[in-house]
Specification:
alpha+beta; Arc Repressor Mutant, subunit A; two-stranded antiparallel ribbon; 53% helix; 13% strand; elongated
């Protein structure tokens, strides 16, 4: 099924989009940037650069490091990170509902429902 993809831009810079949102979710799930990168089949460097960009683009960091200890350190979402992710997902849901009829009409123009991703 065709679906819209939302990107929140600051000028030409993507403050938050599908990939960054998924990275935030993966950090929340795994408790680390390394674990999130592995779960997404992404290099640690790429994940770290995306986190650094997001932390720079918002009024406060979205991801913070947690202190090491017996199990070692990690990373997690800040309250702002959780809020930004929640609001982004709400924006996606509102946009999908608003565009549902147009998306259905657009879907009819495509060859198949199971088109491979490129």
């Amino acid at each position: 099924m065709a679906q819209p993809r939302i990107r929140i831009l600051i000028g030409d810079i993507v403050a938050l989009g599908p990939g960054k949102a998924r990275l935030l979710e993966a950090i929340g799930e795994t408790g680390s940037i390394t674990g999130a990168a592995q779960a997404m089949d992404m290099s640690y460097r790429r994940a770290w650069l995306l986190v650094a960009a997001m932390n720079n683009d918002f009024i406060a960091p979205l991801v913070e490091r947690t202190a090491g200890g017996r199990g070692g350190g990690g990373s997690g979402l800040t309250d702002l990170g959780r809020e930004a992710l929640t609001r982004y997902r709400r924006i996606e849901a509102v946009a999908a509902r608003a565009a549902a009829d147009e998306m259905a009409d657009f879907q009819a123009l495509l060859k198949a429902d199971d088109m491979p991703s490129r």
